[in-house]
Amino acid sequence: MTILSQIRNGEPQRRNVDRRAPIAPLVATLRAAEHALRESIRVEEERTSVRDVTDPGYSILARSMRTRAENLRMTITMLEAERHAA
């Protein structure tokens, strides 16, 4: 077996390790961002005294932050699934 074929055979394994390695810190950063958004939503709801999302007076800012937080949650879930599958 030549060195080149050994390198080629080891390549897919290395790629999986390389792809998984940066996912954990990324997920941790996204979790922190989600947590900060959730806290900001809580503060905005307290400020406006409206916590019901279906209320017409619900804060547009809080609504926007909710959407961002949900998008982060979906991204985190997707990244974790990819990390476990790899």
Kindly describe this structure.
It is a single chain. The protein is mainly α. The protein has one domain (3-85). It is 81% helix and 0% strand. The chain has three helices and no strands. The chain has helices at residues 3-20, 23-48, 60-85. Helix 2 packs antiparallel against helix 3. The model has no long low-confidence stretch (mean pLDDT 86).
List the defining traits of the structure above.
mainly alpha; 0% strand; 81% helix; 86 residues
Given the C-alpha coordinates, what overall shape results? Answer: elongated
What low-confidence regions span 5 or more consecutive residues with pLDDT below 50? none
Q: Between the first and last Cα atoms, what is the distance in angstroms?
A: 27 Å
Count of separate DSSP helical elements: 3
Q: In percent, how helical is the residue content?
A: over 70%
- Computed structural class: mainly alpha
Major sheet description: none
Mean pLDDT value: 86
Structurally, the number of domains stands at 1
Q: What's the gyration radius in Å?
A: 21 Å
Return the string of H and E elements: HHH
> Count of DSSP E strands?
0
Beta-strand share of residues: under 5%
What is the subunit organization of this protein?
A: single chain
Explain the layout of strands and helices:
Elements: H1 3-20, H2 23-48, H3 60-85
Helix pairs in contact: 2-3
